[in-house]
Design brief:
CATH superfamily of the largest domain in chain B: P-loop containing nucleotide triphosphate hydrolases
Distance between the termini of chain A: 39 Å
Number of domains of chain A: 1
Strand order of the largest sheet of chain B: 8-9-10-5-11-12
Radius of gyration of chain A: 19 Å
Radius of gyration of chain B: 22 Å
Strand content of chain A: under 5%
Helix content of chain A: over 70%
Helix content of chain B: 25-40%
Structural class of chain B: alpha/beta
Order of helices and strands of chain A: HHHHHHHHHH
CATH architecture of the largest domain in chain B: 3-Layer(aba) Sandwich
CATH class of the largest domain in chain B: Alpha Beta
Number of domains of chain B: 2
Distance between the termini of chain B: 37 Å
Number of strands of chain A: 0
Shape of chain A: globular
Largest sheet of chain A: none
CATH topology of the largest domain in chain B: Rossmann fold
Number of strands of chain B: 17
Number of helices of chain A: 10
Number of helices of chain B: 11
Structural class of chain A: mainly alpha
Oligomer: heterodimer
């Protein structure tokens, strides 16, 4: 059992490493993870100057989360279609490593890379232009961040089967971007939304991630509340993980029936 | 136990057209195909485009689910035990795709080795060995985008051998290679055969099938129309001779005229740049030449040759492939 876990863990890290290398060589993606976050960070910090430490950190964390979600949706989602275009999707299906594990590894690379680029951007701009950024509970924030990364990866995992079964779903990616920003409360509290949307927010791990990160960075949440957010993050991550695995099994059978794994 | 057992395999595609009012049409790719391949055998599957060769291979490699019948690979059912099958096999589909072009050859191999759970200590020795085997030892650190088509095909072979599979599926691996590249590739196939690998090879080149395969299955319109050794398949045309006539300005009408002649079994016209080559199968042999030339009329005629039939002639007869074809079809 332990051997199996080590084997899969090693494979997952190799997938993440290879995905990272491939993206570093892609100038389009490189622009997205190096140049673009730097510009956004500069604009955000400039606009937030003098608005109070809490407002600044709220927007910085919120915009960071929107960046994470966009990366996961576009880069992660497109990666299945990229594999299909490159003719490697069939090779990935035909290896003994389960496909969800491969996608999990890819999502690790996408999320961690996006996160690191944003952290570095904000720290660099903050130091270079002397805009202060203050985290109220750095340790709790860091733990929340780890749970957030895991939750985002699991959330991305449940989206991937949709891209696998239908190459045409790419057309609806833009429509999937903003509802999650809004319902998760990345940039403004969900209390500003109509009441009927609240249950939808509760179903999104991204919402609990936003609550945990905003709460620990601004100091607006009690320790008990933060513990509750973490518990919800873990519960939803596990639900999405199990759900994704079941969905992958169904979708893989369908793709093999419909012959949608290759373009030929 | 046979390495591969295929029983009444059938596959129907149901492509959808239209966005709002979708219509589904049925395409029968494989109608009824049965065959067995022994351990360590090099088996060829030949047939015209769209005959069902690639679909058959995709079902055997677990990438497609059959509509009917069943197939066992090393005793495992390709649908019920797909994961067990995947550990036993390697496959190559013809063409340049299927590799990460922005990575080096070695990085591609390291990545796939990891996906096949090859122990890193094993990969360390196996990857250089495979690069040596396929003649890419000195180019392994270069990005794949700089490789020629032949090099990419050879890297595909190395990729497919990473986990040392006993059964290999090679789908038109020499398509598009230059003659030297194709010859080198056939040498790689021979060396795999000497390692007692079971190989299912599909190809359009009859001389290649004749040269490499122990047995050949001829597939046409989704059905297996013949299955035998290359020598026995040639017996299908043992009673025939082939008259090959070089022509200048021949067209499909002339093929129709020749086909009507009582002594003609099949006729095939191939375009070769400024000229055409007409191949007529007949039981009369050289005796038929004067009559044939007479019916060709005023058309300019070049070299005329009467020869023994080859495997390609047997194939043409089996798949009813007479008509007007472009060279290389």
């Amino acid at each position: 059992m332990l051997k199996q876990v080590i084997k899969y863990w090693r494979t997952m890290l190799k997938v993440a490493d290879t995905t990272f290398r491939l993206q570093v060589m892609d100038t389009f993606i490189l622009f997205g993870i190096v140049v673009q976050p730097m510009i956004i960070a500069l604009l955000a910090m400039w606009m937030l100057q003098g608005k109070g430490a809490n407002a600044a950190i709220f927007v910085v964390v919120g915009s960071g989360m929107t960046g994470l979600w966009s990366t996961l949706l576009f880069v992660g989602g497109n990666s299945i279609n990229d594999e299909r275009w490159e003719g490697t999707l069939e090779s990935l299906i035909a290896v003994p490593t389960p496909l969800p594990l491969i996608i999990f590894g890819k999502n690790i690379a996408n999320v961690v890379q996006s996160l690191l680029s944003m952290i570095v951007s904000y720290l660099f701009i903050s130091l270079a232009f002397n805009y202060p950024l203050h985290l109220n509970s750095p340790l709790l924030f860091f733990i929340s961040l780890v749970f957030t990364v895991f939750a985002f990866i699991c959330f991305g995992l449940i989206l991937s089967p949709i891209f696998l079964v239908s190459p045409g779903v790419q057309r609806f990616q833009n429509a999937m971007e903003f509802p999650v920003y809004i319902l998760s409360g990345f940039l403004f509290p969900i209390l500003m939304l109509p009441g009927w949307t609240t249950p939808l927010s509760y179903l999104l791990p991204t919402y609990w991630a936003a609550e945990a990160l905003h709460g620990t960075s601004s100091g607006n949440a009690t320790f008990e509340q933060i513990l509750f957010y973490w518990a919800m993050l873990i519960i939803f991550s596990i639900i999405y993980l199990v759900g994704a695995n079941l969905l992958f099994q169904k979708v893989l059978v369908k793709a093999r029936k419909d012959a949608s794994l290759s373009l030929e | 136990m046979n390495a591969i057992e295929v029983v009444h395999l059938r596959r129907i595609y149901r492509p959808k057209t239209g966005v709002f009012r979708q219509t589904v049409k049925e395409v029968l790719a494989v109608q009824d195909v049965s065959f067995e391949i022994g351990q360590g055998e090099l088996f060829g599957l030949v047939g015209p485009n769209g005959a069902g060769k690639t679909t058959t291979i995709k079902m055997l490699t677990t990438l497609l689910i059959p509509t009917g019948g069943y197939a066992l690979v090393h005793g495992y059912d390709v649908v019920k035990s797909a994961n067990d099958v995947r550990k036993m096999i390697g496959f190559i589909f013809g063409g340049e795709r299927g590799l990460y072009w922005r990575l080096s050859g070695i990085d591609n191999l390291k990545y796939f080795a990891s996906l096949y759970h090859v122990d890193p200590s094993v990969s360390k020795t196996r990857i250089p060995y495979l690069l040596e085997l396929v003649g890419l030892r000195d180019r392994g650190n270069e990005r794949v985008e700089g490789y020629s088509r032949g090099m990419k095909q050879r890297l595909h072979v190395a990729r497919t051998l990473l986990h040392d599979p006993q059964i290999l599926f090679l789908d038109e691996p020499t398509i598009g290679l230059d003659p030297v590249g194709a010859r080198e590739f056939r040498q790689v196939i021979r060396s795999l055969q000497s390692e007692k690998k079971t190989i299912l090879l599909t190809t359009h080149y009859m001389f290649e099938a004749d040269e490499l395969c122990q047995r050949i299955g001829v597939i046409n319109q989704g059905n297996m129309v013949a299955l035998d050794t290359p020598a026995n398949l040639k017996h299908h045309v043992a009673d025939l001779s082939v008259i090959e006539v070089e022509l200048f300005g021949a067209n499909s009408n002339l093929v129709d005229t020749v086909r009507q002649l009582p002594f003609v079994d099949t006729v095939q016209l191939e375009d070769r740049e400024q000229r055409q080559s007409m191949m007529v199968q007949t039981k009369l042999g050289a005796e038929a030449v004067p009559d044939l030339l007479h019916h060709l009329g005023d058309i300019k005629i070049g070299r005329v040759q009467v020869r023994e039939p080859t495997l390609e002639d047997a194939y043409v007869r089996l798949v009813g492939g007479d008509g007007h074809a472009q060279a290389g079809d």
